[in-house]
Amino acid sequence: MSEQEGGLGFAAEDDAPIPYMERIRDYYQGLGYGPPYRWAHYAAVPFRPLPRRLAECRIALVTTATPYQPDKGEQGPGAPYNAAAKFYRVYSGDSSADPDLRISHVAYDRAHTTAVDAGTWFPLGQLRQMAAAGRIGEAARRFHGIPTNRSQRATLDRDCPELLARCREDRVDAAILVAN
């Protein structure tokens, strides 16, 4: 008897997560880079409890999407990977507006998605809807972009402190990272 037949709703045996970390490591090894990349992870999660109920919290959205740069080549939905569109410094934008952000500078499965619905990779509209519905206190006045430049040192020493300073300036209680 299959799991479906047993009424448990389990996925098929071959329906498993994509081992993306292994795929990325193999990809860079194939390009001739040195030792395999060592993924950063903490033994203990460096988070703290919310200071109040979620319905009373100010929430910021943090993204790895980049503002559209017309001089950097094709960047629209379904565009091929475009390293020229990368950004290297934390940036902020107005959360009350709908910015023109793009994700052509990051690796994602272009064979199985078109990335046409920006709400799937930059859910600012959904965050504002949650605030309007009272699910969160409010969306922070700004959203923030953090680069994906593959440097743990730059991320930890420069980008994270800058992002934290901006979130503190906005008196944010929590941030949602939507990594593209």
How would you briefly describe this protein structure?
This protein is α/β, with parallel strands linked by helices and 180 residues long. Helix content is 21%, strand content 14%.
Structural class: alpha/beta
Q: How would a crystallographer describe the biggest sheet?
A: 5 strands, mixed
- Rg from Cα: 19 Å
Reading the helices and strands in chain order gives HEEEEHEEHE
Overall body shape: globular
Low-confidence stretches: none
* Helical content (DSSP H or I, runs of 4+): 10-25%
What does this entry look like structurally?
- This protein has a domain of 123 residues.
- Strands 1, 3, 5, 6 and 7 form a five-stranded mixed sheet that branches. A two-stranded antiparallel ribbon has the order 2-4.
- It is globular.
- It is built from three helices and seven strands.
- The relative contact order is 0.21.
- The chain is an alpha/beta fold.
